[in-house]
Design brief:
With 901 residues, this protein is α/β, with parallel strands linked by helices. The chain is built from 29 helices and 34 strands. The protein has a 7-stranded mixed β-sheet, sandwiched between helices.
Length: 901
C-alpha cells in the first residue's frame, strides 16, 4: 500500500452472508477490493461477486440526476412533485391510497425512516418490501414457533455441527463464502455429513454425502416423516419438550401416518435414501438445518419452515453449538429490514402492529401524529391494488418489481396505469423505471453510509469509499426531505445516518426490559466517531451489556417470546401440490453463481459475464427427447400468464417433469427472458410469499431459422431478432441471437448490429459452404469492431477464445476471428475459474493428466485457488469424468453451445 492510499472497511452489498470488504483507495481514486480478515462472517474471504466489486464502480448506466417525465430535473423540483402528489392523494382518498414498495438492499437507516414516515406520519401500513418474496415465510414460521422473528444460531454452528442438512438452498452459488466455511469444516473433519434436499442436483450437491432429489413442494412430508422417526427411535428430548414447548402431541399425531413408504411416495425419494437421512438425523446431536428459497417461496412455505422447526424443537437441538435451524437470508439487509419493521404487518424493532401496547410505545417514542394499527397490503396484493387503481401514488425504492414480482406482465400493466409512480434507483434504465413519473438518483454501494444486518444477526457498517457522483443522494435523505415537504418537519430532522441509528437503537430498548428480542439499546448514545469506527456486532446488545460481547445463541434453555415463554409446535398437515395437467412442467426458478437478481450491478462487471451469458432452461434428457428439444437449441415456455424463450440445457441433474430457469434476465439484456412473466401470483396464505418455484408451463422447440453469435464495441440498439441476449465484455458486448425468418441481407444486418457504416469500417465475410454458415468481421486500422457468426444450427464457436482475440490489438489476431477453428491457440472452453481465467477444457485436460482432486487441479491450472467460487464446478467436472470412465467411453463431443451451468 502506498503512503497516500487509504483502507476503508465496509460490507459486501450482495448476499446475506454479509462479508467484510476491505477497499484500498489510491490517491488517484483507484479501488482495490479484498476480503476483510477481521470480519467474523468471512475472515478475509470473498466470492467472485464480492471480489469483483471494483468493476461495478463504473458510472456507465448510472442514474446521476433526478428526472421528471423522463426529463432532467433538479432535486427541489422532483421532491416537491413527489411530496405534492402524495399529499394530494392522501387528502383526496385517504392514507391507504398511497404506498411504498422497498427493499432488503436498503440500509437500515434508510429503511427505518421509510417505515417511520408511512406508519407513524402518513398513518398507513402500506409499506411492503421485496423481502415478502424472499423471507416472509421464515418470518411467519419463526413468529409462530418462537413468538418472535429470531435466527437462533450463528455461522460457527455450521462448522461445529456433525450433520448439515441443506433444504432448498443452493449455498454453493448463493452464499459462497458460507459454503466455503462448510467445505473447510468438512475437509478438517471428514466424518461430518452433509445432506442436500433439492429437486435438482446443483453445485451444492458436490459436497453432499446424500442428495435427496425431492419432488417439488413436498418438503413438509419429508419432515413429518422425520418427526415420526425421531419419536419412534426415542430421540426426542422429553425434558426439553416438557419444559420449554407446547403442542408436541398434536404435531406428532399428524406425523403419525408418515412412515417411510408414505414419505417415499409423496416425495419421490427412494426409501433407502430416506432411511439413511432419518438415521443420520437421529444419530447426530449436532445437526444444523440450513434452508432458503426452496422452502420459503412456496404455497406452503410457512408450513415447510415449521415442519423443520418442529424437528429441532422436539430434539431440543436449537441454539446450541453446532445444533439449530438456520434460515440463511438472501439480501444484504434482509434482516435489517425485518428489524426496522419494513414488512406491512410489522411495527419497528420487532414490535407487533396489532398490539395496542406496542402501537403506543412506538407512537410516543416517535412523538408522531398517528400510528398504523391495521396491516397494510403485502407485495402481491399491493400491486393488485395498484392495478385496480386503489393506490394513487407509489414509491418504489431499491427493487425492480416489473421483473421480480410474480405475474410480472400484469405488474407492468399495473405500473403503467398508476397515476403516480416514483422510482429511486442507482441505474438509469430498468424495466421498472420505464414507468416512473419521477426518477430519483440514489447513492450506490461505495457511496452509501449506514448499517446492514446479516443472516447471523450481525450488524456491520457500509462505508463510503468515494465521492458520490452527479446529483446522487442517499435514500434516507430523499425520504426525509419528502416527509418535511409533506409537512412532517419534526420527526425527520436528521443530520445523517448516525442520528437515525441512535434513535433506532433507542427505540429497540424503549420500555423493553427483556420483553422483546430485538434490542441494541447499548448504542442509543453512540457518538459519531464511534459510529464511524463501529466494528461488526451481533444483536441483542442490551444497554450496559458491553461486558458480555460473546456471540449469543437463543433458546438452548427455552426463553421463547410467547406469552408463556414456551415454543409452539405447529401442526403442519401435508397438502400435495396441485396436479399438473398432462404435457405441463413444474417451473423451478432461482439463481446463478455470478449474477445478482436483475443484473443492474453485476451485469456491468465484464468478469461476471464470463460464466453464464444467456438465459437458459434446464431440462431432463428424456423430456427433451420426447419434445424434440435439442441441446443448445431454443425453447419457448408459456402459460396463461406469458411466455419466454430460453436456451435449452439438457442435463440429467434435472428431474423429469421439472424445468429450472434463472431469474436474472430482463428486457434490458434479453428479448424475452423475464421469467416472472410465467409465475402466477399465488401466495402462501400465512406469509403472503409467492410460490416462485412452482409455476406450471408448457415447453416446445422454438423453430429458429438461423442462429447468431456476435461481438461488438458499440452497444447494439433495437436488435432485430426474435431471440437475443446481451452481455458485457471488457471491449464492449457479446450477444447470442436467433430468428424465425432470415433477414433479407445478412451483410446489412451485421453492419447495423455493429453500428458501423461502409465508410467507418471494412467488412470481411467468410462463407462456410456446406454448413450454411457465414462470418462477418468489421474492422478498421487492424482493430476488430464487430464479429457476427450466423449459422443454421446453434453456433459452434470457441466463444472465450473469440472474445480474447477480439479484444487484442494485434492485427494478426483478426485472422483468427474469421477462422472456423482456433488457429494458434488452444480453445480453453467456457470460463469456469474467473479469478485465473481457466476454462472447462483446460480443467478436463488436467483431469486426464491424472489430477483427480480440486487441490490437484489447482496445482496444475490454478483454477479454484482464487476466490474459490468455482470449486464445486471443478469437483463436478472431476466426478463427471470419473463416471464417464466407468461407463463406455463417450465419443469426444464438441458441444454446439458452451454448456451453461
Ligand atoms: N449468485 C447469487 N447469489 C445470491 C443471489 C443472487 O441473485 N445471485 N440472491 C440472494 C438472495 S436475495 C436470496 S433470497 C438467496 C437465495 O438463495 P437460494 O435459496 O439458495 O437460491 P435459489 O436458487 O433461489 O433456490 C434454492 C434452491 O431451491 C430449490 N428448490 C426449488 N423448489 C424446491 C422444493 O420444493 N423443495 C426444496 N427442498 N428445494 C426446492 C431450487 O432447485 C434451488 O436450487 O440468494 C442470495 N444470493
Ligand atoms: N421467479 C422468481 N422470482 C423471484 C425470486 C425467485 O427465486 N424466483 N426471488 C425473489 C427474491 S428472494 C428477491 S430478493 C427478489 C429480488 O428482486 P429485486 O429486488 O427486484 O432485484 P434487484 O435486481 O436486486 O433490484 C434492486 C434494484 O435496486 C437498485 N439499487 C441497488 N442499490 C440501491 C440503493 O442503494 N438505493 C436504491 N434506491 N436502489 C438501489 C438496483 O439497481 C435494482 O434496480 O426477487 C424475487 N423474485
Ligand atoms: S458470499 Fe460473496 S456475495 Fe455474499 S456477502 Fe460474501 S462476498 Fe458478498
Ligand atoms: Mo431474496
Amino acid at each position: 500500500m502506498s503512503a497516500s492510499s487509504k483502507i476503508i472497511r465496509t460490507t459486501c452489498p450482495y448476499c446475506g452472508t454479509g462479508c467484510g470488504v476491505k477497499a484500498t483507495v489510491s490517491a488517484s481514486g483507484g479501488v482495490h477490493i479484498s476480503g476483510d480478515e477481521k470480519h467474523p462472517a468471512n475472515f478475509g474471504r470473498l466470492c467472485i461477486k464480492g471480489a469483483t466489486l471494483a468493476e461495478t464502480l463504473t458510472l456507465n448506466e448510472r442514474l446521476l440526476h433526478p428526472r421528471i417525465f423522463d426529463k432532467r430535473a433538479s432535486w427541489s423540483e422532483a421532491l416537491a412533485m413527489v411530496a405534492g402528489r402524495f399529499r394530494e392523494a392522501i387528502q383526496t382518498y385517504g392514507p391507504s391510497s398511497v404506498a411504498f414498495y422497498v427493499s432488503g438492499q436498503m440500509l437500515t437507516e434508510d429503511y427505518y425512516v421509510a417505515n417511520k414516515l408511512m406508519k407513524g406520519y402518513i398513518g398507513s401500513a402500506n409499506i411492503d418490501t421485496n423481502s415478502r418474496l424472499c423471507m416472509a415465510s421464515t418470518v411467519a414460521g419463526h413468529k409462530r414457533a418462537f413468538g418472535a422473528d429470531i435466527v437462533p444460531n450463528v455461522y460457527e454452528d455450521l462448522e461445529l455441527s456433525d450433520l448439515v442438512v441443506l433444504v432448498g438452498s443452493n449455498l454453493a452459488w448463493c452464499h459462497p463464502v458460507l459454503f466455503h466455511r462448510l467445505e473447510n469444516a468438512k475437509a478438517a473433519r471428514p466424518e461430518m455429513r452433509v445432506v442436500n434436499v433439492d429437486p435438482r442436483r446443483t453445485a451444492t450437491s458436490e459436497i453432499s454425502d446424500l442428495q435427496l432429489s425431492i419432488a417439488p413442494g413436498s418438503d413438509v412430508a419429508l419432515f413429518l416423516g422425520l418427526l415420526r422417526h425421531l419419536d419412534r427411535s426415542g430421540k426426542c428430548d422429553a425434558s426439553y419438550v416438557a419444559l420449554h414447548t407446547h403442542g408436541f402431541d398434536d404435531a406428532l399425531a399428524i406425523a403419525d401416518s408418515w412412515d417411510v413408504a408414505s414419505v417415499a411416495k409423496a416425495t419421490g425419494i427412494e426409501e433407502a435414501s430416506l432411511q439413511r437421512f432419518y438415521e443420520l438425523y437421529a444419530e447426530n446431536e449436532r445437526v444444523v438445518t440450513v434452508y432458503s428459497q426452496g422452502v420459503n417461496q412456496s404455497i406452503c412455505g410457512t408450513d415447510k419452515v415449521n415442519a423443520i422447526l418442529n424437528c429441532h424443537l422436539a430434539t431440543g437441538r436449537i441454539g446450541k453449538p453446532g445444533a439449530g435451524p438456520f434460515s440463511v437470508t438472501g439480501q444484504p439487509n434482509a434482516m435489517g429490514g425485518r428489524e426496522v419493521g419494513g414488512l406491512a404487518n410489522q411495527l419497528a424493532c420487532h414490535m407487533e402492529l396489532h398490539d395496542p401496547r406496542h402501537q403506543d410505545i412506538v407512537r410516543r417514542y416517535w412523538r408522531s401524529p398517528t400510528i398504523a394499527t391495521k396491516p397494510g397490503l403485502k407485495a402481491v396484493d399491493l400491486f393488485k391494488a395498484v392495478s385496480d387503481r386503489t393506490i394513487k401514488a407509489l414509491w418504489i425504492i431499491g427493487t425492480n418489481p416489473a421483473d421480480s414480482l410474480p405475474d410480472a406482465d400484469s405488474v407492468k400493466a399495473a405500473l403503467a396505469s398508476c397515476p403516480f409512480v416514483v422510482v429511486s434507483d442507482v441505474v438509469e434504465r430498468t424495466d421498472t423505471s420505464e414507468f416512473a413519473h419521477v426518477l430519483l438518483p440514489a447513492r450506490a454501494w461505495g457511496e452509501k453510509d449506514g448499517t446492514v444486518t446479516n443472516s447471523e444477526r450481525r450488524i456491520s457498517r457500509q462505508r463510503p469509499l468515494r465521492q458520490a457522483p452527479g446529483d446522487t443522494m442517499p435514500d434516507w435523505w430523499s425520504i426525509c426531505r419528502v416527509a418535511k415537504l409533506m409537512g412532517y418537519s419534526r420527526g425527520f430532522d436528521y443530520g445523517g445516518p448516525h442520528d437515525i441509528f441512535r434513535e433506532y437503537a433507542g427505540l429497540s430498548g424503549h420500555l423493553n426490559n427483556g420483553s422483546r428480542d430485538f434490542d441494541i439499546s447499548d448504542y442509543d448514545d453512540i457518538s459519531q466517531r464511534d459510529y464511524d469506527s463501529l466494528s461488526p456486532f451481533q444483536w441483542p446488545r442490551r444497554k450496559g451489556s458491553f461486558l458480555s460481547r460473546r456471540s449469543e445463541r437463543f433458546f438452548a434453555n427455552g426463553g421463547f417470546f410467547t406469552p408463556d415463554g414456551r415454543a409452539r409446535f405447529i401442526v403442519t398437515p401435508f397438502h400435495p401440490p396441485k396436479k399438473r395437467n398432462a404435457g405441463l412442467f413444474t417451473l423451478n426458478t432461482g439463481r446463478i453463481r455470478d449474477q445478482w437478481h436483475t443484473m443492474t450491478r453485476t451485469g456491468v462487471a465484464p468478469s461476471l459475464s464470463r460464466h453464464i451469458v444467456e438465459p437458459f432452461v434446464e431440462i431432463h434428457p428424456a423430456d427433451a427427447r420426447a419434445l424434440d428439444i435439442l441441446p443448445a437449441s431454443l425453447a419457448r415456455l408459456s402459460n396463461a400468464h406469458g411466455s419466454v424463450i430460453l436456451r435449452a440445457l439438457v442435463t440429467d441433474r434435472q428431474r423429469r417433469g421439472s424445468l429450472f430457469a434463472p431469474i436474472h434476465w430482463t428486457q434490458q439484456n434479453s428479448s424475452c427472458g423475464r421469467i416472472d412473466a410465467l409465475v402466477g401470483a399465488n401466495t402462501d396464505p400465512i406469509s403472503g410469499q409467492p410460490n416462485s418455484k412452482g409455476a406450471f408451463v408448457g415447453i416446445e422447440p422454438w423453430p429458429a431459422a438461423w442462429f447468431g453469435f456476435a461481438l461488438t464495441r458499440n452497444k447494439p440498439s433495437d436488435v432485430d431478432a426474435g431471440y437475443w441476449a446481451l452481455a458485457r465484455t471488457g471491449f464492449g458486448w457479446r450477444m447470442e441471437l436467433a430468428g424465425l425468418s432470415e433477414p433479407e441481407d445478412f451483410e446489412r444486418y451485421a453492419r447495423e448490429l455493429f453500428g458501423v457504416t461502409a465508410d467507418s469500417a471494412a467488412l470481411a465475410c467468410v462463407e462456410d459452404f456446406g454448413r450454411g454458415a457465414f462470418r462477418f468481421l468489421a474492422h478498421q486500422h487492424g482493430r476488430a469492431l464487430g464479429l457476427f457468426i450466423m449459422s443454421r444450427e446453434p453456433v459452434e464457436a470457441a466463444r472465450a477464445f473469440l472474445c480474447e482475440k477480439f479484444a487484442s490489438h494485434d492485427p494478426k489476431d483478426l485472422m483468427s476471428l474469421l477462422a472456423a477453428r482456433p488457429l494458434s491457440h488452444a480453445d480453453c472452453g467456457r470460463t469456469v475459474c474467473i479469478c485465473h481465467g481457466v476454462g472447462a477444457k483446460e480443467i478436463e485436460v488436467a483431469i486426464d493428466g491424472r489430477a483427480r482432486t480440486v487441490e490437484a487441479i489447482g496445482r496444475a491450472t490454478r483454477a479454484g485457488t482464487g476466490c474459490g467460487s468455482c470449486r464445486p464446478e471443478i469437483q463436478r467436472l472431476i466426478n463427471e469424468k470419473a463416471s464417464h470412465a466407468q461407463r463406455a467411453p463417450a465419443p469426444a463431443q464438441d458441444s454446439p453451445q458452451e454448456e451453461h451451468a
